[in-house]
Specification:
By secondary structure, this protein is of the alpha+beta class. The chain is about 15% helix and about 45% strand. The chain contains two helices and ten strands, in the order H-E-E-E-E-E-E-E-H-E-E-E. It has helices at about 1-20, 115-120, and strands at about 30-35, 45-50, 50-55, 65-70, 75-80, 90-95, 100-105, 125-130, 135-145, 150-159. Strands 1-4-5-6-7-8-9-10 form an eight-stranded antiparallel beta barrel. A hairpin with a 2-residue loop joins strand 2 and strand 3 (about 50-55). The longest helix has 17 residues, at about 1-20. The protein is globular, with a radius of gyration of 20 Å. The N and C termini lie far apart (about 40 Å). The relative contact order is 0.18.
């Protein structure tokens, strides 16, 4: 009798596991997401003139995670939760299901010089590298008008 119960429980768990949802790029197009604080945040690679330089930008230690609210072609980013501080507004141009270009939305906010510079250099192209559990790993890259390639590896997760 115990063997039958154990077998039934095992088969049920295997069945549940086989129906577990596998996320795809489409699952990251619309919804609420978060970008967790990791060691990699603020680490960038710059390729120019046949040389590669790795550098780490100054981190804002008060930010534990970014909240990202994404609709079809727009994205709003909040530091440490929706309604905290001043949001960043971005426009999404989908290149394919796993790749998109981000530029800052000047119709929703006054852009800083850094954001204007990103827009003048055709924005940031984000490409999926892998999906694990509820998170998508990506590389965000920008090729500047003078030929430098600036890239950053990151992670975005479903809430």
């Amino acid at each position: 009798m115990k063997k039958k119960k154990l077998l039934l429980i095992s088969l049920s768990l295997i069945g549940l596991n086989s129906y577990a949802q596998k996320l795809t790029c489409s699952d990251f197009r619309v919804g609420t997401f978060y970008i967790p604080e990791t060691k990699e945040v603020g680490k960038y690679t710059i390729e120019a003139n046949d040389s590669i330089v790795a550098l780490t930008g100054k981190r804002d230690l008060s930010v534990k995670k970014w909240i990202v609210v994404r609709e079809k072609n727009t994205q709003i980013e909040w530091k440490n939760g929706i309604g905290n501080g001043i949001p960043e507004y971005e426009v999404i141009e989908w290149i394919d299901n796993c790749t998109y270009r981000l530029t800052y939305d000047s119709s929703k906010e006054e852009l800083s010089e850094e954001k204007k510079w990103v827009n003048r250099n055709n924005g940031i192209v984000v490409t999926k590298t892998k999906i694990e559990n509820k998170c998508m790993y990506y590389t965000a890259a920008m090729t500047t008008n003078d030929g430098q390639k600036i890239s950053h590896d990151g992670i975005i997760c479903k809430e």
